[in-house]
Amino acid sequence: MDVDEEICHDPETSHLRCPAKRIYCTCGVFSMEHHNESEAYKDQLRKELDRLVSQYDDLCLEEENDERIISFEQMKRARQLMNLRAEIKATTKNLTNARIRNPEKSLLRLSRRGDIGVTREGQVCYRETMDKNLGAKYLVLGKFEAASVDRPELETLKTTKEYQQ
C-alpha cells in the first residue's frame, strides 16, 4: 500500500515513524497439497538424527570406558566420532530447512478448505534506498497477524463497508 504522508505519533519525542512511501506486508503462504509428504520427510530426518545421536553417544561411552593410553581402536573411534559429528550437523541443517520450507500445521492458519496455510505473523516494512552501489534495504516497521479469508467472506466485508458509508 502507498502512504501519502508521513505518520508519526509525536514528531518531537518519538523515533517511531511511518514514512510517506510504499509499505509492504509480508508473510509466509504455503500450499497444503503435499504437506503429508513433507511431514513424512521430516519424520525420516528426525529418525535419522536420533539414530546418529545414539550411535555418537555409544561411541563416546566406549571412549570413556577405554583405559588404554593410545591404541589403534581409539584412533578409529575418533575418526568415527568426527564423521558422525559432521553427519549430525548436516542432518540437523536439512531438518531445519525442511521446517522452514514446510512449517508444522500448528504454526499456520489454514483456509476453510485446508488447502492453503499462512503464517500467523508477518512483517510490515518499507524499502529504504541506499547508495547506488549498495542497493536497497528493507526496514521493519512492525508486525501483523494474518488469517486466511475465503472469497465469499471477503465480498461480505466489502459490502458491509460500503453499506456503512
Short description:
With 165 residues, this protein is an alpha+beta fold.
Please give a structural write-up.
- This protein has 165 residues and is of the alpha+beta class.
- It has two domains: 7-31 and 115-164, no CATH class; 35-106.
- It contains three helices and eight strands.
- It has helices at residues 35-65, 72-101, 151-164; strands at residues 7-8, 17-18, 23-26, 29-31, 108-110, 116-119, 121-129, 136-145.
- Strands 3-7-8 form a three-stranded antiparallel sheet, with no helix packed on it. Strands 4-6-5 form a three-stranded antiparallel sheet, with no helix packed on it. A two-stranded antiparallel ribbon has the order 1-2.
- Strand 5 and strand 6 form a beta hairpin.
- Helix 1 (35-65) runs antiparallel to helix 2 (72-101).
- The radius of gyration is 26 Å and the shape is elongated.
SSE order and pairing:
Elements: E1 7-8, E2 17-18, E3 23-26, E4 29-31, H1 35-65, H2 72-101, E5 108-110, E6 116-119, E7 121-129, E8 136-145, H3 151-164
Antiparallel strand pairs: 1-2, 3-7, 4-6, 5-6, 7-8
Query: How far is the N terminus from the C terminus?
Result: 21 Å
Order of helices and strands: EEEEHHEEEEH
Which range best describes the helical content: under 10%, 10-25%, 25-40%, 40-55%, 55-70% or over 70%? 40-55%
Can you give the mean pLDDT?
81
Q: Which key phrases capture this entry?
A:
single chain; 165 residues; alpha+beta; 45% helix; 22% strand; elongated
